[in-house]
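Our consortium's second objective concerns turning raw sequence data into structural hypotheses that experimental partners can test. To show how far this objective has progressed, the report includes one record in full. It was chosen at random from the queue rather than selected for favorable results. The single chain below, 506 residues long, was entered without modification.
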Amino acid sequence: MSILWRPFGFSRLLKVERFNPTESELLIPLAWTALPQKLRKTLGIFLLDQRKRFSAMPEMETNKRDSELFSPPSDVRGMTKLDRTAFKKTVTIPVLKVKKEIVSRLMRSLKRAALQRPGIKRVIEDPEDEEYRLIMLDPYKILTHDSFEKAELSILNQLNVSPQISKYNLELTYENFKSEEILRAVLPEGQDVVSGFSRVGHIAHLNLRDHQLPFKHLIGQVMIDKNPGITSAVNKINNIDNTYRNFEMELLSGEENMMTKVRENNYTYEFDFSKVYWNPRLSTEHSRITDLLKSGDVLFDVFAGVGPFTIPAARKNCTVFANDLNPESHKWLLHNCKLNKVGQKVKVFNLDGKDFLQGPVKEELLQQLELSEERKSSIHIVMNLPAKAIEFLSAFRSLLDGQPCSSELLPRVHCYSFSKDVNPAEDVRQRAGTALGVSLEACSSIHPVRNVAPNKEMLCITFQIPATVLYKNQTIRLEDHEDLPVKRQKTDDAFSEEKTETVSNT
């Protein structure tokens, strides 16, 4: 029979005959026990030494050779223009010969052992016998018939299949390699490869590093080839720090069409990705804020973009005021509100964030806070412009006239920010407090959103705007508000009641 043999750590397939022990060979264990103990010990040391001599080479070297089995040919290293024909390679893998009528039943039990490679059929015809099929096996898991697990051997026995292993020369092409394997073989050895990207409809959005730029067009084409539905690959070439929050991008490969459609949390958004901001990695954060809202609540979305906070809130029957300075974002925000059938529930503005806060937000707050304090709706203000949003918090200082309302009715702000500080939570809390002119230490929570880059975090600080900040010329006296405890919200969203000290709004 044919078995896969690995002496000295090398994979080889050798033709050997089935071994049938003779009667004298079966008596060897008995003869061994009859030897004097000292002699057995000496022979044991000798045999152990021989076993060490014939053991596999160091594990690290073995693993390296194993990983090279399904690696592209070494001569593709340094390729900058994709040549798919250069990725041909032949490897020898183990196969199991079985009758064709039992293949389907057997494959259900051999999922672990079967070869799984892109574009490779796990079952092929036996070129020597049309009544049989060859099952491709994973050479990392199946070395000999002893590599089968007990359950696998059991099903082989039930179906009267011999567990003997044969060899098969498998030709690999570009289609059979994964994108990471291709890029690891092409880029300079030891350099990081592109392991992921942001998918925006049919567009793959990458953030390439400097050492990857000479290979950028090849990388873009590989991403298109290896990801069904992707027809364009782009690379961001500057930071999102301009007035309209979009970024310059260059087309790496594929079609130039940047008009796209995405689905997020069961809502549909359409937009021109080259002119607006969209980050699919924020879908969880969009859901988190939406889950805080209740029917009848009021939401002010200061930097609304194309509507990922606005539309879910409106569908939740909230009153929504949405704003974005970018004319393109404003256009697609209106479009997406209609697309998701909430056009009548959202008031849309095209203003600077400060003008929006000191204009429409101020007017609506005055009306909302004059309503009966028995109402159960809450007011939320979302400020998702992490590069600059904290700077806009100063717009809340002395925004309203009149007597302050109950602290329970004060607006709750969700403000996003980046931080490169060693203690990002405290950094964001301190900067937000400075913008407001009060300490937020006892009345705010910090939610980590995501890691943007090495040593750069995105966070969301949530707090109720203190009445001494929001109202003009107000002094909150402790004795007048003993029944209105301030809620101290910790990072785990637990609250503890604390009384306020007398503070004068300057």
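The partners drew two points from this record. Confidence is low (pLDDT under 50) at residues 1-34, 38-66, 476-506. Residues 353-370 form the longest helix (18 residues). Both points have been shared with the crystallography group to help prioritize constructs.
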